[in-house]
Amino acid sequence: MPLVTQRLRDPDINPCLSESDASTRCLDENNYDRERCSTYFLRY
């Protein structure tokens, strides 16, 4: 795994890791319709 990716996955560096994962998952599940995932973006 590249160093940049490792840093983004480190909860000490990225304290919003779960919110980031949830927003990405929402985009994947909703065919990248940003309006349907706006609540996840607000949390992130």
Characterize the structure shown.
With 44 residues, the protein is an all-alpha fold. It has one domain. 59% of the residues lie in helices and 0% in strands. The protein is built from three helices and no strands. The mean pLDDT is 89.
Order of SSEs: HHH
Helix content: 55-70%
How many separate helices? 3
Please report the distance between the alpha carbons of the first and last residues.
Answer: 24 Å
Task: Report the major sheet.
Answer: none
Summed over residues and divided by their number, the pLDDT gives a mean of 89
Quaternary structure classification: single chain
Total E-strand runs = 0
Tell me the strand percentage band. under 5%
Content-based structural category? mainly alpha
Bulk shape:
elongated
Stretches where pLDDT falls below 50 for ≥5 residues?
none
Q: What's the number of structural domains?
A: 1
What is the radius of gyration computed over CA atoms, rounded to a whole number of angstroms? 12 Å
Family: Belongs to the CHCHD7 family.
Keywords: Disulfide bond, Mitochondrion
Main location: mitochondrion
Protein name: Coiled-coil-helix-coiled-coil-helix domain-containing protein 7
Summary tags:
44 residues; mainly alpha; 3 helices; 59% helix; 0% strand; Coiled-coil-helix-coiled-coil-helix domain-containing protein 7; COX23
